[in-house]
Amino acid sequence: MSMREMSKVVCGGLVIGLAALSPAQGQDLSGKTVEFVIPFAESGGSAAWANFFAPLLSKHLPGNPTVVVRYRPGAGSTEGANWFQQQSTPDGTLLFGPSGSTQFPYLLGDPRVRYEYKDWKVVLSSGTGGVVYLPPDLGERFDGDFDDLKGEAFLYGSQGATTLDLVPLLAFKLLGLQVDPVFGIEGRGDGRLMFERGEANIDYQTTSAYLKSVVPLVEQKLAVPAFTYGSLDEQGNIVRDPTFPDIPTFKEVCEATEGCETTGTGWEAWKAFFVAGFAAQKLIYLPGSASQEVVDMYTKAFEAMIAEPDFAKNSEETLGAYPQGVGKAAQVAHEQAITVTPEAKQYVLDWLKDDYGITMQ
């Protein structure tokens, strides 16, 4: 073999060897800043969730880039999602963290929606829960059902009926409660502040925000938990939330409350949106322009993060006891989050029109 031929073999082998390396190994974000954008205010559960992951991503991404959480609230999160749809940042320096409040307008055909989930590339899924709570005077009258509270006039701070607040508002309807939502708050943290100021007498927070901001109120006897939305077992049944095993689920409270049914179209609609809004609530996306190489880089970083010995403990303290999905698990959660049956969708559309005058046109 001539020297020229040998050189070709060596060079060819080198190219093949480099190609065989893990794609993630070819990425380096040294000196760069990753913007982790959430379409909410900085006082709610999404903020707590994003700020939990930001420093861990900085640690596990190649080159240890600075990861900064940015807030783009507005229109129940649709403004931020519309903005993200227009971004073409392929190098891994832009992430987006929507929530059920972003999924619901998409599922319901809200005309404000100019984003398409199927265009984005998912790299992490986080299930979560939610807890509905009452002020102490009403909490004293709650004994596992709402029979004694059906005549109460409730005020509730809401981001909007087509946001994640759809789940509690529909739960209140099924329970037969008289709840007057005050629409227009920018984040669930603002709803909690209304509750603390006495401007609302029923509220809910997602698990991360409840652990951080409501548990202290409960400990001071300024709030009383009523129910969680629950969690799903492997068969798809609603069971007690693993983060709050001592608090009954909405299903349990509904079964105990006169007139509230856990069968039929209304119940199936509530459950469908609970799944889309909580069991598969929070996801982290890259823009559609991101290469598979960048997707693999993030998958590898999240896998290393989750494998840390103290991750489960720290995650549970901040986010609750819920699994974090990467790879195929994240893709399955993504598909669940953007899928609702036609029957459930129509029930919700009819309810929104009848109760709130909201039509999707």
From TrEMBL:
Coiled coil: none annotated. Belongs to the UPF0065 (bug) family. PANTHER family: BLR1237 PROTEIN (PTHR42928:SF5), TRICARBOXYLATE-BINDING PROTEIN (PTHR42928). This is Tricarboxylate transporter.
